[in-house]
Amino acid sequence: MASTGDQIHAADKPPPGLLLTKLHPPPTRNQNVRRDRLLERLRPEEGVKLAVVAAPAGSGKTTLLATWREAEAERRPVGWVSLDEGDNDPVVLWSHVLEALRRVYPELETPRRPELVGASLIMDAVLPDLVNELTEHGDAALVLDDFHRLAKGPSRDSLGWLVEHAPPSFQLVVSTRSEPALPLAALRAHGELLEVRADELGFTAAEADLLLNSRLELGLSHDDIDELVRRTEGWPAGLYLAALSLGPVQDRHAFVSRFGGDSRHIVDFLVDEVLEAHDPALQALMLRSSVAERLCGPLCDALLEQEGSAEQLSELARTNLFLLPLDDRSQWYRFHHLFGQLLRVELEHREPGLAQALHERAFAWHRDHGSIEEAIEHALDAGMFAEAGDLISATWVEHTNVCRYATVLAWLERFPTRTLESSAVLLVVKAWVSSMCAMQEEATQAMTALERLDGLDQGPLPDGSSSAEASMATLRATIPFGDVGAGYENAIRASELERPESPFWPVVCWARGMGHFFRGEFVEAEPWFAEAAILGPAGGMWIIAGSALAYQSMIAGEAGDVERQKWFAEQATRLVRERGVEDIDGEVPLALGASLSARGKLDEAQPLLEESVTVLRSFGQPIDLAHALVRQARVLGALEERDAAASAIAEARATVDSCPDPGILEEWVSALERSPRKRSSRGDGELSERELAVLRALTGPLSERDIARELYLSHNTVHSHTRSIYRKLGVTSRAEAVGRARELGLL
Question: Which of 64, 88, 699, 712 has the fewest CB atoms within 10 Å around its CB?
Answer without folding.
Answer: 712
